[in-house]
Amino acid sequence: MNSFPHHDLLTALTIGLVTGSFSGAFGIGGGTVSTPLLRLILNVDPHVAVGTTMALIIPTALTASLNYYRKKEIDMSIARVVVLPAVLGVCAGAVATQYVHGLFLMLSFAGFVCVAGIDLTFGVVHNLLKKTAEAEKLIPAVENTETEVNRILTRAAFVRKRNLIILGLSAGFIAGFFGVGAGFIFVPCLMYLFRSSIKTAFGTSLLVVSAISIPGTITHAALGHVDFAMMMSMMGGSIPGSILGSTLALKLKDSWLRRGFGVAMLCVAAALVSNELMR
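The structure corresponding to this sequence follows.
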């Protein structure tokens, strides 16, 4: 699609800059920001907003992930397991969007962002896991034979791999369906379920996101949901924004990053719901 008007170039660059900054700072592809802004500011068709954002995620997430890689904040053992099921999920999610009304697509997206924002802002799951860890310390240690230890470790490795595959499939589907990088699924899950630090979760999420966005974009493009002219205009701002955001995030405290991301998502969700209902 080549319908993007030239007089919106500066607006698209600005949206790209904001998207890139959020992507680098919070380990997401940027769709959490870009998709609502395309609707709110440029009045882009919902399906095109989703597809074009997916295309923008590729250079944005890849650029930001390089910064985390240099600081050794990417868990490659997780990324290798998650990528393939996530690719399958993202293709399925992208195909599913053509059977959904645009209003439902945007409102369900806003609801999903709101739930994630509440959790990150108030640390609901984080506090629950902290209490669980403290309770586990009170349980007396039990000595096991070497055979029993090996059995436990083998079982733990199997469960870990199974859970990563499930995470990849579900997060990939959500990424393709909403046109986002699914970072706000990957990041909390990596933190809470796999005990990654928040910065390692950001870096690992960005690497996986950049990989799964490629098949997602191809699927959306085949459905006519990608405005490549608009995407290229936004990319001019998203790449420097992702460098800036990731550089800043690597220097900030974990708690600041978590709460900042949560508040931003709540604001985006509220604005998007208001805009869609008024239409």
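Residues 6-136+145-278 form one domain.
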